[in-house]
Amino acid sequence: MGFKSIAIDGPSGAGKSTLARQVAQQLGYRYVDTGAIYRTLGLLALRRGVDPEDSAAVTALLRERSIGLRYEADGLQHMYLDGTDVTEAIREPEVSRYASGVSAIPEVRDFLMEMQRDLARRDNVVMDGRDIGTVVLPQADVKIFLTAQPEERARRRCAELQARGNAVEYETVLRDILVRDEKDTSRAAAPLRQAPGAAVLDTTGKTLEESLQMVLDTAKKGVGA
Ligand code: DC
Question: 40 CB less than 6 Å from ligand 1?
Fold first, then answer.
């Protein structure tokens, strides 16, 4: 009771996770990366050889209860699968495709929504995702829709993957982003869209510092910090 929440939604590569993490740090809030939860389920499907579009098979995976989420000493959210830390492994491009597939299944969304709401009941949170302001936390104190042009998002994603030692082609990353945008916005279950009352912030052409300032100003105003 009485905890504050800041919802940050938007397409992949708009800078949500970097900015949400920094805003959380500055305000002393907990950062909840909901995409990481979908990614962990995607990785589980990949490892078990389950088709991410097969809703019965994916829903059965949820019943295994092999997905874990823990805040560690570094203050950050770590994801576990069968007891192993998969926080890094879930960033692989193949896992992104599986995550997008499983996230279109309504039973998956219902199940994971409870997990997300539970986190917001226990702490002040900055939560990022696709449907946080629209579905998961419609009563959030602050709602932000963070966006940037696809080409810029692809450039950023490329740099991020390359920094992790992943040799990726810009064209491939851009194509993946466009396909995922289309899937995420056109799916029937909780499609990506702006929440009513959300502040729309565009980070195209902005430096990280400029973007952070913009998000932080909006967030602070909303929570009265
Ligand atoms: O933000 P991300 O790239 O880590 O998200 C991975 C996938 O999960 C993406 O395809 C959209 C989906 N997702 C979702 O449907 N709802 C959320 N709240 C977060 C992510």
Answer: no
